[in-house]
Amino acid sequence: MSKDKIRIVVRGCHNQAPFLTLAKKNAPDLPPGIELALLPCSGKIESHQILKFFEQGVDGALIIACPEGACRFVEGNLRAVKRVAYAQEWMEELDLEPDRVKFHMLDSQASEDINEIINTFYSAMCELGPTDLTGL
Amino acid sequence: MNLESRLARVLAAGHFAVTAECGPPQGADSQPIQEKGKLIKDVVDAVNVTDNQTAVVRLSSLASAVLLKEMGIEPVLQIVTRDRNRIALQSDLLGASALGVRNVLCLTGDHQSFGNQKAAQGVYDLDSIQLVYAARIMRDEGRLLDGTRLKSSPKLFIGAAANPFADPLGLRVTRLAKKIYAGANFIQTQCIYDTARFEVWLNGARQEGLTEKVYILGGVTPLKSVRMAEYMKANVAGIEVPDEAIKRIKGVPNKDQGAEGIKMAVETIEWLKGLDGVAGVHVMAIGWEEKVPEILEAAGLSPRAKLEKASQ
Amino acid sequence: MIVAEKKPLAEIKASLGSARRILLIGCNTCVAECAAGGPKETALMASALRIAYDKAGEKIEVREASLDRQCVHEFLAEVGEEVNWTEAVLSLACGAGVQALARFYPQSVIIPALNTQFIGTTVEAGVWAEDCSGCGNCKLAYFAAVCPLTRCAKKLLNGPCGGSNNGKCEVSPDLDCAWQMIYDRLTALNQLDRLKEFVPPNDWSTSHSGRPRVIIREDRRV
C-alpha cells in the first residue's frame, strides 16, 4: 500500500511545547495524511472519539501525553492511558489491530524528537496497511 | 427422646460415639455406596451420607441413606439448603422419617460455584440454623414453619455442623449457641488439624454451658499425603491445616506419608477422647473409607457392637 | 442505581438481525453513572456498529439519541419520530428502560445492548458493587446496614458460614464476607449482642419471588 493513502491522527497535550509548536506550524515536515490537533490535556481524549476516528476512515491514532508526574491536571495522562486501553479492547472486539491506537507518554527529559515519534508511528501504520473500512 | 436413633442412644448412654462419612457416587448405581458402607458397617455407630457435596451432582442423599439402612447401617442424612426451598426441605424431612431415617444433619452446603453445575440457581431459602429450627418444630410441636399442623411428626435426631476454624472467631460460639437454641441435638465439626484453635472454641462453648446442651463430635480427616495437606490448606474453604502438621507429614518419605497421616488422625482421636465436652468423633476419610476400621481400632474405639448393647 | 454492562457486540449484531436502520437510545441516569449507557457509551456503540457493518461490507444507518430516563413514560415520546424511522431500536438502558420503550412503542423492535446486573453503589471510580436485592422488606436496621441477603453469597441470616476466612468469602478471595462486615460494624456500634438472636426464615413473598410487583399510589395518579 502506498504511503500517501495512509491516514493517521495525532492528538497531543498542548502543554508539550514541541508538540504545540509542531501543531501550530501545521506540520510541514511531516508526510501528508497526518492530521494533528491539540488537546487541552491528554486526559481529554475519550474512547468513543478514538473509535470515531476509525469509523471515519483513519488508519491509526496516536495520543501524545505529558511525562508521568508532569500532567498539569495531575492525572489527565493517567486517565488517557486507560481510555486508550479501553478503545483497544473495542478494536479487538471489532477485529481491528489494537496497535492502530498508540499512547505515547513523553519522557521527562523531553529529549525525544516529536517528529520522530510521529514518523515512527506513521511508518508502523504504513507497514500495517489501511483498515478495510470505507469510512463512509 | 428419639430412642429409635442408635446414635442418640449411644450418646445418651455417655459412650464416645463414632460416626463416619460416605459420599454417594456420581451415577445411578447403588453398588458404590453399599460397598463403602460394607467397609465401615461394623466399626461405627452411624454413617453420614453427604448431600451433593461440593455442589457436585450425585446420587441423592436420601436414596443413599435408605440403601445403607437396608444393610443395617444407621444413616445420618445430610441435607443442604442450597438446593431446595422450605417446601422441599420440610417434605424431605417427613420423607426421611417415613423411610426410617432417624438422624439428620442440617447444612447450608458448599456454594454452587464450587461444583459442576455452576449455572445453577442457589436456593438458600433457609439457612442451616433455620433448617434445624424447622426440623425441631416439626418433631416437637408437630407443625411446619408457617404453623400448619402435621398429621404426624417426624422422628429425628437433629444435627448441625460447626466450624471452629472459620472467621470471625468471635462469632463461632455464638453460631453454636444459635444452633442449639434452634434445636440441634448433636454437632459434627469441621476436620481438626489446628487443635489449639479447637480448644479455644471448645472452651468458649463450655463457658457458655453449651457442651451440656449438645453432643459435640469432633471431625477428623486423615491426611493421605503432603500434597493433600497442602491442597486442603490452600483450596478447601473453612479448613485450617497448620504448618506443623504439614511439616510433620513432609518429614517422612512419600510412601510412608499415608501411614503418618493415619497416625496423626489416631492421635487426634485420642486427644478428642480426653476433652471435656467432646462426645464423639466424626471420621471423614474422603475416598479412603477402607482405612476407617484401622484408624478406629488404633484409637481404641472398636468394636462398636458392644457399645450398643451396653446402651440398651 | 441500576448497574449494567455492555453485551458483546456479536450478540447485539445477531439480535439486530436484518435491521439496517438502527436507532441507539442511551439513558442519562443510572447507566450513565455506571458508564454503560450514557451519551459517551452510546456514541461508542454507534461507532462500533458502523465499523462492524462497514467491515462486513454492509450498509447501515445508525442514529443516536439519549433520554434522561428511559424508565419513565413521560420521557419516551421525545424519540417518537426517530423510532418510527428505525427498523430496530437498540436500547442502552437497563432492563426496565428496554421494557418501558417496548410498552410505549408496541410496533417497534426493541433490542437490549446491555446486561442489567444489579442495584448497586459506585464504590470508587470504575468500581460498582451490588448492595441491594430489592427484597421488599428492608432488614438493614437489624444488620448494621450491611445486607446479608444481597452481600452474602448464601443469603445467610444467622451468621457466617464455615467458609468465612480473614474477612473474605469462600466463593472468591476478592469478595468481602458480608458477615465479617456485619460483625465489624456491630462491634464498632457496641451492638454485638444482636447476633445472638435467632433470625427466623425470611418472608420472600414481598420479593420478586412472590410475583412481579406493582405499586399503585392513588395520590400520585392523574
Question: Could you walk me through the main structural features you see in this protein, from its secondary elements to its overall organization?
Answer:
The complex is a heterotrimer of chains A (136), B (312) and C (222). By secondary structure, chain A is α/β, with parallel strands linked by helices. Chain A has a single domain (3-128), classed as Rossmann fold (3-Layer(aba) Sandwich). Chain A has four helices and four strands; from the N terminus they run βαβαβαβα. In chain A, strands 2-1-3-4 form a four-stranded parallel sheet, with helices on both faces. The mean pLDDT of chain A is 89. By secondary structure, chain B is α/β, with parallel strands linked by helices. Helices cover 41% and strands 14% of the residues of chain B. Chain B has helices spanning 6-12, 31-40, 61-70, 86-98, 128-140, 169-182, 195-207, 226-235, 243-250, 257-273, 292-298, 305-311; strands at 17-22, 46-49, 75-80, 103-107, 157-162, 186-191, 215-220, 280-283. An eight-stranded parallel barrel of chain B has the order 1-2-3-4-5-6-7-8, surrounded by seven helices. In chain B, helix 5 (128-140) links the parallel strand 4 (103-107) and strand 5 (157-162). The longest helix of chain B is centred in the last third of the chain and has 17 residues, at 257-273. By secondary structure, chain C is an alpha/beta fold. Chain C has helices at 9-16, 30-33, 39-55, 73-76, 80-85, 95-104, 148-151, 178-188, and strands spanning 2-6, 21-27, 61-67, 88-91, 110-112, 114-124, 127-132, 168-169, 172-176. Classes of the chains: A alpha/beta (136), B alpha/beta (312), C alpha/beta (222). Chains in contact: A-C, B-C.
Q: How would you sum up the major sheet of chain B?
A: 8 strands, parallel, barrel
Structural class of chain C: alpha/beta
pLDDT averaged residue by residue of chain C:
96
Strand order of the largest sheet of chain C: 3-2-4-5
Low-pLDDT sequence parts of chain B: 308-312
What is the CA–CA distance across the termini of chain B? 14 Å
Q: What portion of residues of chain C belong to β-strands?
A: 15-25%
Query: Compute the gyration radius of chain B: what is it?
Result: 18 Å
Q: Please, how many helices of chain B?
A: 12
Percent helix of chain B, as a range, is 40-55%
Shape of chain B: globular
**Strand count, sense and closure of the main sheet of chain C?**
4 strands, parallel
The total strand number of chain C stands at: 9
Mean pLDDT figure of chain B: 94
Work out the number of β strands of chain B.
Answer: 8
Helix content of chain C: 25-40%
At CATH level 2, the architecture of the largest domain in chain C is 3-Layer(aba) Sandwich
Query: What oligomeric state is this?
Result: heterotrimer
Shape of chain C: elongated
CATH class of the largest domain in chain C: Alpha Beta
Low-confidence spans of chain C: none
